[in-house]
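Changelog-adjacent note: as of this version, every example in the card shows the full chain rather than a window. The one below runs 285 residues end to end.
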Amino acid sequence: MHTRRIGDVEVSAIGLGAMPMSIEGRPDEARSLATLHAALDAGVTLIDTADAYHRDAHEVGHNETLIAKALASHDRGKDVLVATKGGHLRPGDGSWTLDGSPRYLKEACEASLRRLGVEAIGLYQFHRPDPKVPYAESVGAIRDLLDEGKIRMAGISNADPQQIRQARDILGGRLVSVQNQFSPAFRSSEPELELCDELGIAFLPWSPLGGISRASELGSAYAPFARVADAHGVSPQRVCLAWMLAKSPVVVPIPGASRPETILDSLAAADLELSPEELARLDAV
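Full-length structure tokens:
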């Protein structure tokens, strides 16, 4: 498995986004554990989660608990960087709400620590800006958790360039990651990706294949990806991830998966080399 860096930690060039294993339409636990173990067997050392990745109101942290179970039952579990998030909530009716208050973020971190069964969270990210709370106060809480040793590294998610620079300043230069939506269907995070490249901050594209419901449609919706895929005899999804990896060494995609075969196809993108001409055609989509 090729590797990249988040902060001072070397991780697999492609991680696993575990969200599909906990929200609506999720598989049974046996298949989820099989998916997580297949990823670990293949060399994945980055798994992305959040306390809000659950379906029902009474099961906050379902995804974190699932990951902890998978890691505890695999001999490579201790080698994995678990990236989790706080500040987004799901009341249980399918909606999403926000709470970026320092009090809530610190409580959420403590709860994530218990579910993951660790003394310090490898990477903790502020999930999404809360318009009711000054951004500096929310990121200040992440800084406090870092200073207290509750988290080893700090990141932010769904941030714009100004917020990236502000968070970096508040964290005293210790911002290691930015997790934003980025895919062929969602290119508006290009400025954030370019800024992360400039600053040497890991950029973690979420929904890199277009989201749970649309990932299978990537080839039909974006013909250049299908044509390049046909030329290499691989899936359009694999081409998409290889295209992202080629954009910058700071890019670490985290495609979601809920089946072993899906994550294994995604991981093979790290070995797919696209020509400059192919990359130019994909960039033009």
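Structural remarks: Residues 102-116 form the longest helix (15 residues).
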